[in-house]
Amino acid sequence: MKYLTVIALIVILLSIPSPVAANERRFGYTTESSVLPPGAREIELWHTDRRGRGYFYRRIDQRVEYEFGVTNGLMSALYVNITARSRDNNGDTPGGGTSHSTAISISNEWKLKLQDRVADPLGVALYGEVTVGTDKEELEGKLIIDKQFNNVLFAADLVGEYESSSAAENGAIVTDAEVKIKTGFGITYLFSGGFGAGVEVRNDNISVDGSLKHSSLFAGPVISYSTEEYWMTLTFLPQVKSFHGGTTSGGTLDLGEFEKYQTRLLFSFHL
After folding, report:
1. What whole-number distance in Å separates Cα of residue 114 and Cα of residue 72?
2. Is the pLDDT score of 6 beyond 80?
3. Which of 58, 183, 232, 264 is deepest in the core (most CB within 10 A)?
């Protein structure tokens, strides 16, 4: 956590005043179509806690994001990502020791808003992100659709990812490539005073060499709070059903590829 704090402080000190404008997120996993106006900037901090596999496993993902509006309807962002894992190095075989690993990567995001979720029949945006790190390279694209009816907001996204990762096995470097297709949906009610509460649902699918290996459904509550200066969002997302690749009795859950529980906290403030 100390590394993220230092990075955030450096970005703040190097930034000059900008117009106050929010790009608030009401969902932890589902992306919305809103973008920052030209010249506006925000710092966004991510903390994702993943727990529960068929063996001892815990993973912490932390991201520091510097967002900035480029032109009307277009924004970009730069990320520093840190992932830390602790796990039983025997996997699901009893008696192993605990191994620890840390990976660092950087990302660049671009989001183009095509339609507004309030003024138009539907909000529509396109999203692209590239990540380069110590153990992987990743390309990600999203189609985003959302709509706000009075105090009710819903959002849905279709995500495609290509990920190439490398690891050492028995003294040799092994490279794996995966294609991930994810669909997400969220609905929330916006109360007075800046509070929001709702539900998020996601389906994650992983293919290797053109064959589907894993598919699981996740669903859980989301709460949010927003002011003119900052906003925050918290989602708890347990795995509820495995459609392909299940490892528990009856194949109910896939605790080999996915975690049983995920919790994500987002916090953002204006520069």
Report:
1. 10
2. no
3. 264
Chain centroid, CA 44 distance in Å? 12
Total domain count, the chain: 1
Task: Annotate 226-262 with b (16+ C-beta within 10 A) or e (fewer).
Answer: beeeebbbbbbbebeebeebbbeeeeebbbbbbbbeb
The pTM of this model reads: 0.87
Domain that includes residue 202, residue range: 2-270
Structure token pair of residue 153: 């907001």
Q: What is the mean pLDDT of residues 122-149?
A: 96
Report the run of H or E that residue 13 belongs to, with start and end. helix 2-14
Closest CA to 133 of 81, 186, 67: 81
Mean pLDDT of 145-172: 88
Q: Using CB atoms within 10 Å of the CB of residue 14, give its burial: 0 to 12 exposed, 13 to 18 middle, 19+ buried.
A: exposed
204 phi and psi, to 5 degrees? -105, 130
Strand pairing category for 74-88 and 57-71: antiparallel
* Closest to 29 (Cα-Cα) out of 213, 156, 135: 156
Specify the pairing of strand 172-190 against strand 261-270. Answer: unpaired
Q: Phi-psi category of 210—alpha, beta or left, where left has phi over 0 and alpha has psi -120 to 50?
A: left
